[in-house]
Amino acid sequence: MLQMTPFEQLQYIEVGASEQFPPRAGRQVIIGDYNLAMFRTTDGALYALENRTPHKKGGPLTEGIVSGGYVYCPLRDLKIELSTGLVQAPDTGEVRTYPVIEEAGIVKVGIPF
Length: 113
What we know:
Blueprint: E1 10-17, E2 26-31, E3 34-40, E4 46-50, E5 65-67, E6 70-72, E7 79-81, E8 97-98, E9 100-103, E10 106-112
Antiparallel strand pairs: 1-10, 2-3, 3-4, 4-8, 5-6, 6-7, 9-10
């Protein structure tokens, strides 16, 4: 998986207020060189993934459709698990994920430095 390793140091960057991330909608967030796709599921969980679909003709993941704990690639209909970034079988691939925290109505994403 392309998740953070235990040795990476993270800096949590504020990316907006909680209400700016409605359920089942993708939102692009750019932090320096990082282009992220943020998604909130209907149960309120918030996820941050690299904003690209995991195939050669990849486009923005923010244009995907969220259903349950997955986002579906807008071009090839790949089913990507939001918590791990892994493409579900029979397809393969993965997208890097980033940790998200919400504190006092503010959303922050952990970015390696």
